[in-house]
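User: Okay, second chain of the day. Same drill as before: sequence in, C-alpha cells out.
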Amino acid sequence: MKRKILMLLVSIVSLTATAQHTERFVRSQLERYPRLRLLDLYKSCFQDYMGAEHLVSDYDRVKRYLDDELRTAEAFAAWDYEPCGTDGRYVRVNIRVVKEGRITEDKLLDAFVRSANGKHPSVKKWRRRWHKIMGKIDKMQLGLPHYEQDRQYIDSLLTNGQYAVSHSPEYRNAYHPHYRIVERRIFEKELKPLLSRPE
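Assistant: Same drill. C-alpha cells below.
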C-alpha cells in the first residue's frame, strides 16, 4: 500500500514539474517571438523530441541547400543558437555563424547529418507526447492567432503518421529562421566551444 501511495506521489510531482517546464518553455518562446503561432511551438517541440525532419542520405544535396540558403538569406535571427522544445535535447544553430566564419560549413553540416541520422522515437510515441504538451498549452489559454486551425492541422498530420511542419508565415517574416538542428551533446562538445571563443 505504501509503495502505491509513493508511486502516486512521484507521478503527481512528475506531472506538476512537466507542466511547469512546458509553461516556462511556452512563456519564453512568446517573450522572444510574440508573433508565433501554435505551429511554431509545435515545430520546436517536435524538433526537440524527434530531431531533424528527415534522414540525410545525400550529403551533396544537403550542402547545396545550405549554400543556397547562405547566399540568398537577407536577414537572420539575433541569436547564435537556442535549445529546442521543453527538454533541449536538440539545438537550433543559426547558419549566420557559418556566414560570419565562426564555424565552418563542413563542421556544421557534419554535426547536422550525424544528428539527423541518429536514432529517433516513433511518430506514435511523439503523438502521445504532443497530446500531453498540448493539454498544458490549452490550459494556458494563450489566445494565439489561428489556434484551432493549427491544432486541427497538427492533429490530422499525426493521425496520418506524419509530424513535420513548416514555420508559420508570420514567424518566418518576423524572425528569419535560418538554422540547422544539432543533437545537444554533439553541439556542446563540438560547436559551442567554437562559438564561445572571443572574436
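The chain is about 65% helix and 5% strand.

User: Thanks, on to the next one.
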